Amino acid sequence: MxxxxxxxxxxxxANDERMHWHDKALWFVREKRDKASKSIPEWEQLREYADQIxxxxxxxxxxxxxxxxxxxxxxxxxxxxxxxxxxxxxxxxKLLSANKVTKLVKSKSMLTEECHLNPYLESRGIQVVDxxxxxxxxxxxxxxxxxxxxxxxxxKKSDVSDTFHEHLGTQKGNDDPxxxxxxxxxxxxxxxxxAQAGLTGVNFAIAETGGVVxxxxxGNADMGASVPPLHIASMGIEKIIPRxxxxxxxxxxxxxxxxxxPITSYTSHFHGPIEGGQMHIVIVDNKRTPFLQSESYxxxxxxxxxxxxxxxxxxxxxxxxxxxxxxxxxxxxxTLSTFRAPKKHKTLSFACTLCGSCTxxxxxxxxxxxxxxxxxxxxxxxxxxxxxxxxxxxxxVWLMTKPALFNFVGKVAxxxxxxxxxxxxxxxxxxxGKQRDLPNMPEKSFKDLYKEGxxxx
Amino acid sequence: MTSKEQxxxxxxxxxxxxxxxxxxxxxxxxxxxxxxxxxxTMLESVGxxxxxxxxxxxxxxxxxxxxxxxxxxxxxxxCGLGNFDSNKEDDPHNLKDIDLAxxxxxxxxxxxxAVWLKNKENRHRSLxxxxxNIVLVVxxxxxxxxxxxxxxxxxxxxxxYGVFVSGPSKTADIEQSLVIGAHGPKSGYIIFVE
Lengths: 457, 194
Hints:
By secondary structure, chain A is of the alpha/beta class. Chain A contains 21 helices and ten strands. A six-stranded parallel sheet of chain A has the order 1-10-7-4-2-3, sandwiched between helices. In chain A, strands 8-5-6-9 form a four-stranded mixed sheet.
């Protein structure tokens, strides 16, 4: 089954007021990112360094993973390896059942979303409580997160109020964010104190020290990993960095790129279990290694999941995270998903204006717009795109490779199009005509104007 | 083949990523003429507050900020307000009723308003999060410029955990409205002592 971004986006866009509100909320975050990055004179050098560290790591990934495992083991951490989502879920479940865990508190982890860990554990009788506030909200609503950093960005406070009234018994209609947050705090604090295990994601894993770093604002990862006796950390193979000092680059870039904060409230370095407890790390591949074999898409694996590319993307802001139907939405999600399952996600690389803004803000310099552009060609070559799109592209190629004809058609179009009845231009075959009008036809073509300009010189 | 062997083999097979040297951070990163002023500005921007006081004024200052907090745990030698010894507890769950934690910070970073905490003499790392309020006490001379200087000082010898804390816990997950006090402390002060 392939997903259809245009159809999903159409549903989101149908609520004009909410679409604009969503757009503004994300643009606000993007502006905060700009302010934060401009306050660091060496910002571009930091991006350069981050790119170098990631590239160096990826070319030596096997060595660093082994170094990490060795050092983590010395620290009393048990390291597990999972080739895919299924194996990851099995390992986590085995650890939980061996420790008789009936309730697990989880902090935000896109990897466990990717592996569909929650339903897996729930169907085996383990209660899973997402503890990041945004994640908790979408969990209670039985929805996936719509953004990797701001999971409930698509919801208004009235939505949250209704959800909490139903599930946490808050006052009906009280949508004060502080009141709602306090209610969630009280309920989740109870969960932290009664859970027998905590699971966190991993932002960075350090080969040199054998520990992992988790960044949160709420402190939920720390509550989950320091109160219950069992801490499980799930990490993708790409989270590794070589040296402790390399963290200086990433801790400076991550929060500033994500939300415009100088650093997250908590940047926690876990290097062993709590007293009398256990710490386990599950290293997961799940279709990551093929990126290392692709000249076009290898850099996608360098992503540090800050979300800056989605906050700046004009398409993401106006179509909402759920329209992507992939665990990671926005530009990075579009390229990751299309590489992994081109047939399923074939519409996503076309949901891009090639404006390049994502590439400009990416703290690790992933060539996102180039990747999306290349995907289109790859999809065409593999004959995966729809016939309508393929024929349209073929017609455009045919016309554009015939300059004389192209000039002639342009001339005719400038004369005829203004006189055509609207129905000829705006119909179901021309999806671009939805909610768009053509600009007035210019008198002269760009080519004519250019030639005149040359004469003036 | 085990999953580990298979993953490593997948990484090694036809890896097209070209090696590039790791950066060197010596003499890198912005510096500030007035580190305290920068630190304060950054911390306030994330909902925290910083003060500089004389060593002898510590107890009085904390009492003024938190007059009503009853259960107080501290690992700061010069603080005499502690009435709950977290290190005597075997189970971190027993720390749940602490109103105020007064904790020693190893150093602070001006560029982002963060303080580095390590648990060498603190038995339960949960103390930093489970307490309702927190005061971090830092020596005024331990204020660095940036994160590159910070990581030069960090090591995990004899400790299993360390954390940069910048301000109290907070969230903006409900319509981007900033709410101070999510799961960790609801308020936080950083006190530099001379």
